[in-house]
Amino acid sequence: MAKNNNNNNSYGTDRKRADNLLNMEAIAFQIRESYKTARTNIVYSIIKKGCKKISFTSANKGEGKTVTSVNIAIALAQQVNTRVLIIDCDLRRPQIHNVLSIAFAPGLTNYLNGECSKDEVVRSTKINNLSAITYGAIPPNPSELLSSESMREFIKELEKDYDYIIFDTPPVGVVIDSLPLVKQSDGVVLIIKHNSTTYPDLKKIIETINRNNGKILGIIVNSVDSVKSHKYGKGYGYGYGYGYGYGY
After folding, report:
1. Structural domains of the chain, with CATH
2. CA angle 16–59–183, rounded 5-degree value
3. How do residues 42-93 score in pLDDT, each as one tens digit?
4. What is the distance between the alpha carbons of residues 134 and 100, in angstroms, rounded to a whole number?
5. Whole-prediction pTM value?
6. How confident is the model at residue 224 (pLDDT cuts 50, 70, 90)?
7. What is the distance between the alpha carbons of residues 11 and 89, in angstroms, rounded to a whole number?
8. How far apart are CA 137 and CA 106, in angstroms?
9. Dihedral of alpha carbons 211, 38, 108, 12, sign
């Protein structure tokens, strides 16, 4: 229980920042358009019928992975008749419940341990067409849970109800928890932070994903100062760039 409390308290700043970003009408126009551009690129990068599954990961913690994955999920859900589910698969440092202001339990780990039903863990959010599954509890064996047959079967069951499933996964440069989800995903989006993520970090996670047969859709760069915002004397603090390829 103490571990859960420490985990939740550590995200106070992230939660406040995320609340601002979640209001798509309130955030800066340029950032809003960048999310929509990323959404468009993702949509056209996965050509298949049925549910599209996308993993979001990063090299290290604190690179904006969760905030970015949630806002991309929101952008996808804003399309007509598009049902989106985001799942908090970062079972060591979960944040989805904070960002979306929903209860953390029962959640994914509770379902995988047979403690509750699917209907009990899938939650609606204040965003139309966007549902979420939170973490439930911090487990001692996150890698084993995410790679289990129960997890694979759960994803197959969820695919029937959604057009997109977004996996917010742990940083692949830190732990291996996300690799089973990378293999099950139709694509992977890498999140890096401007002036923070190093080239060796980026090279390492690209090689790791390639070795595990993951399809890299592109890279989103966080915390990029807008040239135009400097021109007018206003720094947005958050900028999002999206591109195919592995360079900065």
Report:
1. 2-243 (3.40.50.300)
2. 110
3. 999 999 999 999 999 999 999 999 999 999 999 999 999 999 999 999 999 9
4. 10
5. 0.81
6. confident
7. 16
8. 8
9. positive
- For residue 166, the surrounding DSSP H or E stretch is strand 164-168
pLDDT one-digit tens code per residue, 13-47: 444 445 545 555 555 777 778 888 999 999 999 99
Q: How is residue 66 written in tokens?
A: 């969760």
223 φ/ψ sector (left φ>0, alpha ψ -120 to 50, else beta): left
Q: How far apart are CA 91 and CA 4, in angstroms?
A: 11
